[in-house]
Amino acid sequence: xxxxSFRLVLLALVVNVTLAGCGCVQQAMRGETAPPSASxxxxxxxxxxxxxxxxxxxxPLSLAxxxxxxxxxxxxxxxxxxxxxxxxxKYSIRAGDAQILKKNYSWFTSNQVRATVEGNCDExxxxxxxxxxxxxxxxxxxxxxxxxxxxxxRLDTISYGKEKPVDPGHDEGAWxxxxxxxxxxxx
Length: 187
Fold this sequence. Notes:
Blueprint: H1 2-22, H2 24-30, H3 38-41, H4 63-66, E1 84-85, H5 95-110, E2 114-120, H6 127-148, E3 155-161, H7 172-178, E4 180-186
Parallel strand pairs: 2-3
Antiparallel strand pairs: 1-4, 2-4
Helix pairs in contact: 5-6
């Protein structure tokens, strides 16, 4: 009987050490969320695979509703490139943001300029996780524009993770504004 209980204790110890080593336990303890599942990653068409992009069927997030009672941000697409926003822990293009990217495509057809596609996240989560998520957001927007017909050589991507918030607040309104892809034309 002592041998069986010793084996059971040893097995429990091995399982705990294995889970602690992979980071799953620490990630859950810090309140971080896991990376998107394979089905969520499949929503984005890889570069050059298709001319159509999978678009998430949701209503776009308006900055007025994201900021609560604050003023709505108005952006004139004729002035330049317009940012797109993302849901928490997501990098799929929403229907309303697909329309913004189509307007950005029109800007690219009118201007033969290169641009940097900058992925950004809110302050929640680790630095490393947000850098990866920001890169996925930048790649998602870049791939959508390429699928529309923009030359991929004109689009560079970078992730700033949570390092460049547009709103320094610590609430849902600020976080919603910070989950974005920003476009910077290069001269």
